[in-house]
Amino acid sequence: MLFDATTKDTFLNIFEGAPERLLRPGEMLIHAGSEAEQVYNILDGTLMVSRIGNDGRRQVLSFLFPDNFIGLTTERYFFSVQAVTKARIVARPRVMLEARLSEDPEAGRAFLNMVYRVLENSMDLIYSLGQRTAVERVAVFLLYLRNRHRVALDLADDSPELKTVALPMSRQDIADFLGLKKETVSRSFTQLDDRGLISRPDNAHAVINDLNGLRKLAGIQDFSSPLRAQV
Amino acid sequence: MLFDATTKDTFLNIFEGAPERLLRPGEMLIHAGSEAEQVYNILDGTLMVSRIGNDGRRQVLSFLFPDNFIGLTTERYFFSVQAVTKARIVARPRVMLEARLSEDPEAGRAFLNMVYRVLENSMDLIYSLGQRTAVERVAVFLLYLRNRHRVALDLADDSPELKTVALPMSRQDIADFLGLKKETVSRSFTQLDDRGLISRPDNAHAVINDLNGLRKLAGIQDFSSPLRAQV
DNA sequence: CGAGGTTTTGAGGCGAGTCAAGGCGTGTGG
DNA sequence: CCACACGCCTTGACTCGCCTCAAAACCTCG
C-alpha cells in the first residue's frame, strides 16, 4: 500500500483542473534517477513502483491505484514508476505542491499522514519479505489488494463486493513484489486453492472463500498493534 | 538507515535543553501499539526498531545511532524501539514537534526530507530482502553501517577511520534485520573473510580490506540512480 | 484457427534452515 | 590471578523450501 493517499487528503486539491495524461500498459512514467519536477495523482488504472539492480534483478516496491499520489522524494526519483494497465493520471509541478504544503499547515499535516501510511506499508512489506514463507506472502498479498479495494471504495469489511479481488498485474510482477519466482507464486496460488481458501475463476481474479483462514495464515492481527485490526 | 536525521536538521532544535533519559542494553523504549505522545532524539548509543509477529517471528526494521530521530508516526507507534547498547536520549512531547513544524515551513521541509531519507532506506532494505543472497545482504549491511558512521562523523569516503566498522548488535539482531538465521549470518561473515574482503579482530568489529570488492558484491551503484553514488 | 505469450505443473538441484556440538570471550568467585 | 561457568558465536551434518530448467496447458488476439 505504498504511496497511497486515501480519504481524499486535503493537499490533493492541487490536482483540481490539472492536465491529464494517458498511459498505455507497460509505459514508463518515471525513470529512477530522473529529476522530480512533476508530481502525479492517479485517476484510473494500476501502476507499479520498482527498483532495478544493474544485474537486472527487479524489486517491485508497491502497486498504485486510483487516488494514490506519486512524488515522494526531493530533487530526484530513486525509483521507477510504470503503468501496469491502461491508466489516467494528472500532473502538477512539484513546486506547486511545495507551495501548498508550506502555506497551509493543514495540507502539510495531511501530506505527512499520507507519508506515514506509506512508511507503515513499507514496513509490512519488509516483514513479509524477511519473515514469511511463500504461501504466507501470497496470502497477505491478496488481503492487501482486498484492503486497497476496500478503502478506495470506502466499503465495509464484510461487503460482498470484496469477495473477488482483481489481479491486473502478471505473475512475474507479483513475484518481483514478493521476492519470489513466478513459478513459486503460481504454486502458492494453487496451494491456497487446494486448501479451499480461494478459488480462481481466471488468471486475473481470485475469489476469497475463507477470509478468516487467509487471515490466520497471513498472521494478520500481528504486531501486537490495535491499529492493524484488519487488513 | 531508517529514521535518521543527518546534517543536524533544523527541526532538531526542539530537543535543545530537553530532559535526558538513560537506557540499559535491551531496555524497551517504545512498545508497538502504544500512544505516540513523545518523540525522541538519540545522543549516544545504538537502538533498534522492530516488529514482532504474534508467533514470535521478529523483523528488525532499522538500527538507530546518535542524532537519529524517533517518532515517525501519528497517534500510535506501529513498531517497537529497544536499546541495543547503553544509550542516552532526549525526549519532547510530540505536540511540541507538531507546533514547530506548522509554524516554521523551513523546519517542515527539513523534517520531510528526513522522512524521505527514511523511506529511501526502507526501499534499500526491501530490495535486499527481496533480491539479494545471504552473503550479499551481509555485505550491504557492512557498507550500510560504514555509511552511517561516515555521515554521523561527517568524514570523507576514503577516511581511514572507516576501515573498521563496529558491530554493537548481536548476530541474532543482524539475522532478524536481514531476514536470515544467525548461523547463516555467521557463515556469511566467514565467507567474506575467506574471500579476503574483510577481517574480524573480534566479534564486535569488522575490518574492510577490500572496499571495492565489497561494493561490487553488494551491487551498490545500482538502481541506475546518480543519487546513490556510494554507500 | 493458429501463433505467441503467459501460467501451470513436473523433476531435480541448491542455498539457506535446522539441530547439535564445539570454541571462544567475558565475568565471577575462589 | 586463575578456574570455571555462561552466553554467544562458529562450524558441521543433514533437511527442506524455493529455485531452475523444461514441458504442457491455457489465453488472447490477429
What does this molecule look like?
- Two copies of one chain form a homodimer.
- With 231 residues, chain A is of the alpha+beta class.
- The first copy, chain A, has two domains: 116 residues, Jelly Rolls, CATH 2.60.120.10; 99 residues, Arc Repressor Mutant, subunit A (Orthogonal Bundle).
- Helix content of chain A is 37%, strand content 23%.
- Chain A contains six helices and eleven strands.
- In chain A, strands 1-8-3-6 form a four-stranded antiparallel β-sheet. A four-stranded antiparallel β-sheet of chain A has the order 2-7-4-5.
- In chain A, helix 1 crosses helix 2 and helix 3 crosses helix 6.
- The N and C termini of chain A lie close together (11 Å).
- In chain A, 43% of the residues are buried.
- The structure holds a DNA duplex (30 and 30 nucleotides).
Please give the oligomerization state of what you see.
homodimer
Please bin the fraction of helical residues of chain A. 25-40%
Helix-strand makeup class of chain A: alpha+beta
Predict the CATH topology of the largest domain in chain A.
Jelly Rolls
Biggest protein-protein contact in the assembly: A-B, 56 and 55 residues
Strand-residue fraction of chain A? 15-25%
The main β sheet of chain A shows up as: 4 strands, antiparallel
Radius of gyration of CA atoms of chain A, rounded to a whole number: 18 Å
Unreliable residue runs of chain A: 222-231
